[in-house]
Write a structure and sequence with these properties.
Layout (H helix, E strand, L loop, with lengths): L6 E5 L5 H14 L4 E5 L9 H6 L5 E5 L13 H21 L4 E5 L2 H5 L5 H8 L7 E6 L4 H6 L2 E4 L20
Parallel strand pairs: 1-5, 1-6, 2-3, 2-4, 4-5
Length: 176
C-alpha cells in the first residue's frame, strides 16, 4: 500500500508560508481531520491573529514554542537557540509519531535545520516510524537542498516586492 502521509515544504524568502499552512489546517479541520499546528520561533506575548483563531477550532491543537531566532534578535546566539529548542523538537517528534494527528504542521522549523539545532537526517530518522497516514508540513524561509530532497511537495514563496522595503513594518491583521 502506498504511503498517504506525505511531506510538504513551503519555503523561500517571500510572504505566505505560514498563511498557506494555516489554510491547509483549516481545510483539514473542516473535513474532520485532526491537526497539530506547532509554531517555532514566534515567541513571547506576541499573539497573532492566526493563533487566536486556530485555538478556537476543535480539530486543531495549536502549540507555540517560546523560542526566538538569532536571525531576528541579534542579542541571541546559536547556543541559546539549541538549548531552548531541543525539548521542543523532541515534543514535535513525539506528536508526529503518536498517530493522534492526521497532519502535523511545523511552522518555521527550517531555522532549526539551517542552524543545525537538529540535523535534517537525524530528524527524519526519528520520524520514519510514524504512521503512514500522518502528513507533515514544514515551513520556513531557508531553502535547503537536503530538505527539498526529503519532501514530496515543495512550494517556494519568492519575494519580488515587499512593503518592508519601503519601511512599512508588519501590520496587525495583515501580517500577524
Amino acid at each position: 500500500m502506498k504511503k498517504t502521509g506525505l511531506i510538504q515544504l513551503y519555503t523561500g524568502d517571500g510572504k505566505g508560508k505560514t498563511t498557506a499552512a494555516i489554510g491547509l489546517a483549516i481545510r483539514a479541520s473542516g473535513q474532520g481531520k485532526k491537526v497539530a499546528f506547532l509554531q517555532f520561533l514566534k515567541s513571547g506575548d506576541f499573539n497573532s491573529g492566526e493563533e487566536k483563531v486556530l485555538k478556537k477550532l476543535k480539530n486543531i491543537r495549536f502549540i507555540k514554542f517560546n523560542e526566538q531566532s538569532p536571525v531576528f534578535n541579534k542579542k541571541l546566539n546559536l547556543k541559546y537557540l539549541k538549548n531552548k529548542s531541543e525539548k521542543n523538537i523532541e515534543q514535535a517528534i513525539k506528536i508526529i509519531n503518536s498517530g493522534k494527528y492526521d497532519i502535523v504542521i511545523l511552522d518555521e522549523i527550517t531555522h532549526h535545520f539551517k542552524f543545525k539545532t537538529i540535523k535534517i537526517n537525524e530528524f527524519f530518522n526519528k520520524i520514519k516510524k510514524r504512521p503512514d497516514c500522518v502528513e507533515i508540513v514544514i515551513t520556513g524561509r531557508w531553502i535547503l537542498k537536503e530538505l527539498i530532497n526529503k519532501a514530496d511537495l515543495v512550494t517556494e514563496m519568492k519575494n519580488i516586492k515587499h512593503p518592508f522595503d519601503k519601511g512599512i513594518f508588519a501590520r496587525k491583521g495583515i501580517e500577524y
